[in-house]
């Protein structure tokens, strides 16, 4: 058995299509693929990313998409344009934070969202962002558990049962998760914290390779033989550190 995972996308539709092509070449059209969130913001085509993934699921592809912290911003903005993410360090509404909201909204045909009056942008967004796309983002699960691994956007609170984990942590956490070397009971596959290349830390794998800031979208395969980074030249094994 094998399962694939794709890291943070951030509106990079062409890159997302590219890694799906790699997965299909490696595992066929029926491969199970888990996306670890942060579909929108910063890149040029957040709307296209959402449409692509929704269409794949509508075609009954075995695609799972978990929610990232950026993904919950748009639905909350549509409900309340002055909503502030409780875990954001910059205590401002989405379109006033430096997170790429303007690029995301532009992909839905809403121009200059970061500089125009918030209520004006909100009214236009209600007209131009399809309600089914907003509902889809809002309804994404916050984790996906398999016998192979736990897939989550940011990480888990170490030592806490999965059923007791809270969304804010699963979508935002860095410390103490990133520094924790204990066995979590299952391999945790996550994004959220950009790294130059996919990192296998023994108890977790970080697959966010910085698509938000000029890096690639990465895809990995998990199978009986380990973890593999998919590349144009074939799969490359991703090894944990020898001391892990």
Detailed description of the structure:
This protein is α/β, with parallel strands linked by helices and 244 residues long. The protein has a domain at 2-71 and 140-238: Purple Acid Phosphatase, chain A, domain 2 (4-Layer Sandwich). The protein contains seven helices and eleven strands. The protein has helices at residues 13-27, 46-58, 73-79, 101-106, 118-128, 131-138, 167-172; strands spanning 2-6, 33-35, 63-65, 144-145, 149-151, 187-190, 199-200, 204-206, 219-223, 226-229, 236-238. The strands form two sheets. It has a six-stranded mixed β-sheet with strand order 3-2-1-9-10-11, covered by helices on one side. The chain has a five-stranded mixed β-sheet with strand order 4-5-6-8-7, with no helix packed on it. The model has no long low-confidence stretch (mean pLDDT 97).
Q: From the helix content, strand content and strand pairing, which structural class follows?
A: alpha/beta
Radius of gyration: 18 Å
The CATH homologous superfamily of the domain at 2-71 and 140-238 is termed Metallo-dependent phosphatases
Oligomer: single chain
Count of DSSP H/I helices:
7
Beta strand %: 15-25%
Enter the CATH topology name of the domain at 2-71 and 140-238: Purple Acid Phosphatase, chain A, domain 2
CATH architecture of the domain at 2-71 and 140-238: 4-Layer Sandwich
Q: Tell me the name of the CATH class of the domain at 2-71 and 140-238.
A: Alpha Beta
What is the topology, as strand order, of the major beta sheet? Answer: 3-2-1-9-10-11
> What value does the average pLDDT take?
97
Report the strand count: 11
Low-confidence stretches: none
